[in-house]
Amino acid sequence: MRFVKPNGSHPLRGPVNFQGAAFPAMSNPAASPDEPDRQRDPERDQQREKAAFWDAVRISTQTVPGLFAWGAVSGMAMVQSGLSVWQAVVMTLVVYGGSAQLAVLPLIAAGAPIGVMVLTALMVNLRFVIFSAVIGPHFIHLKWWQRLWYGYNNVDLVMAFFPQRYPAHTVGKHAGKLGYFRGLFIPNWWAWQLGTMVGILLASQIPPSWGVGFAGSLALLAMTIPLIKNKPTVVGVIAASLVAVATVGWPYRLGLLAAIVCGIGAAVAAEKAMNGQGAP
User: Fold this and answer.
1) What is the DSSP string of the chain?
2) Where are the domains of the chain?
3) Structure confidence by residue, pLDDT tens digits, 210-228
């Protein structure tokens, strides 16, 4: 009777090879966390990313008209506030945040200190901290500069769709997520930037009587309403709307942040309550 020593060597034949067909899981230590028991297939992973990308593109293209119209409104507002064409172009490329841009423009026109402008923009954009807290854990495996790039593109549209496809319990499963994220933000970026450029160039040609700003708001409503698909979402929308109306007079548009926090909290609470009622 032959025995194998604890260190894995055979008394007559030398070290025993534990790799290969008998132990397929050990032969590929870099296997994807999505598939711990199978070897990773780069071709299949690429196909998943591509399919997820085009799924996201089909979804995000529905919002392109609204984003284009809202971008045009922002572009006109920048020029009409006194910025030159080149200043407006740099601002939209660097800031890439309609709410912050519109909040800062009156301060620029009034000659407010730079510190006040920066603080105002930070306050208005605090909602992106919430967005990052929700979506960031899905990309924790990426390098810091990659996470920085995706953070720049983590906008409202991405927050609206990404968690629906990849809820919190999918953290750690990476298949398709990068492709889906790209499919959301690329059409969003182009629609916003092109709309803004059109608004910048045509600011002096479009009279205020056309009501382009109101048209942009209607376009955003048309983009948002189809996202209300279940009861927790309805609860969140109602809560956010009530808080937004009640805090409309708050400085630095802090009411927007309060509405987002209350809306998310109400939706989460409603979903937990409904799941509790359905539990045996």
Assistant:
1) -----TTSEETTTEE----STTSTTTT-TT--TT-TTS---HHHHHHHHHHHHHHHHHHHGGGHHHHHHHHHHHHHHHHHTT--HHHHHHHHHHH--HHHHHHHHHHHHHT--HHHHHHHHHHHTTHHHHHHHHHGGGGTTS-HHHHHHHHHT--HHHHHHHHHHS-GGGTT--TTHHHHHHHHHHHHHHHHHHHHHHHHHTTTTS-GGG-HHHHHHHHHHHHHGGG--SHHHHHHHHHHHHHHHHTTT-GGGHHHHHHHHHHHHHHHHHHHHHHHHH--
2) 61-226, 228-280
3) 666 666 666 667 667 766 7
